[in-house]
Amino acid sequence: MEAADYLGLTPQATRRMAKKLVEHKMLLVSDVIGRTIKYRVTPHIVSSPSGRE
User: Fold this and answer.
1) Contacts for 43 with CB less than 8 Å, ≥ 6 apart
2) Residue 15 CB: number of other CB atoms within 10 A?
3) N or C: fewer beta carbons within 10 Å in the chain?
4) How many angstroms separate the CA atoms of 49 and 11, rounded?
5) CB-CB contact of 1 with 9 (8 Å)
């Protein structure tokens, strides 16, 4: 799992984090292929300015 390797976490921990982010509407499920879930970032998160801006 690329995200787990990038974050330095186990795949199970990454899945749990993604599930929590979906519950809090920070990620959206964009597609489900078999057991593979693909996510996308909520448009609000992308368009909202950061603290520096």
Assistant:
1) none
2) 15
3) C
4) 30
5) no
Cβ neighbours of residue 39 under 8 Å, at least 6 residues apart? 18, 21, 22, 27, 28, 29, 30
- The structure's pTM equals 0.69
Distances (CA, A) of 17 to 3, 48, 51: 11, 21, 23
DSSP letter (8 states) at residue 4: H
For tokens 């899945």, the residue is: 15
Q: What is the DSSP letter of 9?
A: S
Which amino acid, 46?
V
What is residue 23's predicted lDDT score, i.e. its pLDDT? 92
pLDDT digits (tens, 9 = 90+) for 2-49: 889 999 999 999 999 999 999 988 899 999 999 989 999 887 765 656
